[in-house]
């Protein structure tokens, strides 16, 4: 053996000895702990029995009973120690002991007393008086329980005192005095990694008011929350009611709108797990929690069957919807994923993300403009996708009002190019991501998306490829949506700008929207699918609630300013026409609607639109859109003027749709 090998062997032996010594030390410490606890149990048993005799005989034990005490003591000690070991009372967690451990302790002391009585009955010997046995049972239970639970109670009391005195301590109220609130309070009492000092609960169950949960009082109903907050100087509200409705959350925010408090809520998943909750699971109350409906729960296996093994191409992959489509289809096991976008930075980052997360999926990133038909055709011939998701579009309503020719080039002819590519390469399905603004459009963006729907329906009549347009409303948190805008305005100190006091919009989270898009687009539900988005939300309410969730007072700390509807915007959005509503088929919040067939002269109109867009003939372009979409109401287009200098363009305001 070489010197190096000897050194390695010696080092290995040294490590082994250290591990063995560590195990021996741990075992010795554990044995000493067990022995100490059992010794204390024996002393408590002796003391409890002796005290029970003293109490029974008023402090003077008669000689006959003194002899019985001497005989009974060793028997009772042995019985109690055997039962305690059998039920594991010597292996006790002083920090995490709870209700189940209390039941185990009571069971052990009761079983010990029963066995003690049984011994004297079996040997037909007259034992201690029944009153002594009963007193000893209660005394032993009390002292053994005190020994085992006092460290936890002391630790909780000390930790609570420390939190209440430390700098930055937040007086906290828990909404919901149920099982979730109880579990949350237990974790808060055990953990020292937070600054929540819980002063009590509020709950709508009037029977709980005045009671205590985990040592904290139930101070009133949820409607009493403002009074409780002011009385106890509360700065943090923890909502611990599983799957609390959006209406109730909005009511809580309205109640607290004049108070500077912060909100956190337990995750929706707790309603399904219902077994544990920790402070780390709490998340800040977000706009998603305000949606007036229950969140969608998808059957993962159903989506996996639709996606698994497919070659999928996504246009607009660097956007919010396209990116989420890419993430979900890769998660559900597609074979190949082709990401197509003109935004090189976000496309690159998405490509890197998916390559790292899903190494089993073949991911390709292709920089391409959907307005270039030849480029798309070459991509289709190269990758031969089974499914094409077309999410590329210009979507900012006010910007498209100022550049209608660009909206037509991208939204109309980009859709036509992508759809014809899917047909040419033999794709099984083509899915167009549409919008609620396509219905009775009041904007160029909405009108061009409606024309895109007509193109898809026209191709569906003769193609073997199945074409589907999926229509839905606003998506919370997407690029350009109102939520990120409000957040930035709140961070700057306001004002928060809202178009109109009665402006309402449908909202859905990005994962929900994409999950329904996959089901609708890949299922056989027809050429136009509309997603049920629940009830629309007033934008001013959303803005006010977001200010409240930030711990500020709407109208006082953050001003809400109404700026008026901008060109192309509607006060209220719709999802279906009356005719579509009459022919709806519901499936997991998916409406399969039947719309009028595209006009027979669609191709002539499209050819005219192309010429007008290339020539920047805005007036003619809008007239053609009006002929194609009779319900479209257009504004008078501005004249085309030369581009402003760079410094002027840099200071021009950019608007975002609501």
What would you say this structure looks like, in words?
The protein is of the alpha/beta class and about 650 residues long. The chain folds into 3 domains: about 20-155, no CATH class; about 170-285, Rossmann fold; about 310-480 and about 505-535 and about 575-635, NAD(P)-binding Rossmann-like Domain (Rossmann fold), CATH 3.40.50. Helices cover about 50% and strands about 15% of the residues. It has a 9-stranded mixed sheet with strand order 10-9-8-11-12-13-18-22-21, sandwiched between helices. Strand 8, helix 10 (about 320-330) and strand 9 (about 335-340) form a beta-alpha-beta unit. Helix 2 packs across helix 3 (about 100-120), helix 12 (about 375-385) packs parallel to helix 14 and helix 15 crosses helix 21.
Shape: elongated
Question: Which strand-content bin applies to the residues?
Answer: 5-15%
Largest sheet: 9 strands, mixed
Low-confidence stretches: 637-658
Overall radius of gyration: 36 Å
SS element count, helices: 22
Measured as a percent range, the helix fraction is: 40-55%
| Mean of residue pLDDT values | 80
What is the CATH C-level name of the largest domain?
Alpha Beta
Count all strands and give the number.
22
CATH-defined fold name of the largest domain: Rossmann fold
Reported CATH architecture of the largest domain: 3-Layer(aba) Sandwich
Instruction: Determine the N-to-C terminus distance.
Output: 78 Å
From the helix content, strand content and strand pairing, which structural class follows? alpha/beta
